[in-house]
Amino acid sequence: MSRVFAYCRVSTTDQTTENQVLEITAAGFALNERRIVEETISGSIPAEQRPGFKRLLDKLEADDVLVVTKLDRLGRNAMDVRATVEKLAQSGIRVHCLALGGVDLTSPAGKMTMSVIAAVAEFERDLLIERTQAGLALAKASGKAIGRPQSLDKGQVAILREKLSEGHSVASLARDFKTSRQTVMRVRDKVLT
Q1: Where among 97, 117, 137 does a domain terminate?
Q2: Is position 115 annotated as part of the catalytic site?
Q3: Which of 2, 11, 91, 151 is catalytic?
Q4: Within-domain flag for 130
Q5: Are 113 and 176 found together in one domain?
Q6: pLDDT tens digit sequence for 125-147
Q7: Which tens digit of pLDDT belongs to each residue from 49-73?
């Protein structure tokens, strides 16, 4: 006989999972309190990195049913949600999402829904990359500096090069210039090339 588990997640401590539990029971799922996993954590954190979800994975067995009220309870990243649902399906665990009409995401209709969601996520990612590249090209064309600002100005770099040529150590120069050893080594390596 399959067991029913509920995964209820909120992002902040001023929210509660009470409504999610009520919604799942109102949908006709009989919940045992020991099979309700509630946690307060951001949905941007991958599901398998969340303490509560890890505990849930330890409890789930083949033929169990995992119920969530909305897909975003599993995560905000569509690719992570898809990977999570696929992993659960491979273990023989069915995933029901109430917001999608209670569809079992591991069924043929659910797989189609997940494919559409994955396609939309990939499209959004591609658009983000495209906009980022266009923004960088525009900034570069208008003469704006790209990347992190330099920690040393040209005068400091000249003094640093002089002190390096005199044999001062990288660590002492990093302390004197209040910068990282890596920055001093970059200046040193540019002198050598």
Answers
A1: 117
A2: no
A3: 11
A4: no
A5: no
A6: 788 889 999 999 998 899 888 87
A7: 999 999 999 999 999 999 999 988 9
